[in-house]
Amino acid sequence: MDMVKDLTLVDLLCTREFPAEHGSTDEGAGGPGYLMARLGPGEWPQPEDCYAYETAMTGQLTMRWGTPSRSGTVTLGERIAEGEDISEPWTTLNALAHDVRTWEATGTGRTVMLAVADREAEHEPQLFVVVTDLDWP
User: The whole model's pTM is what?
Assistant: First the structure.
């Protein structure tokens, strides 16, 4: 695990232009108003290592930008289930994670969100970062 590499990636996502269309990017995925990337190794030695890395990344981002807000995705899921059209990256966040930590990336006009994709018990958890200039729906 290379935290310096992942923090550099977060910085890159805070400055990179957003894609005009939804799809794959060099770092992961993106679309109008957002970029998303996986952090940490491709596979964790133990599932708890992902959560420990999330805690460490949260500490680093908190040192940069202060205490994060925390939002659950339950309401998003309910709104989607009721047929509301929720755009990306929110539908993906809802499908992947139960909650997200959010920081305002000072001086960039962007929001940085950290989330552990752990909704599917049969899959190993993965840590994701989303950088956006879109408001939470």
Answer: 0.92
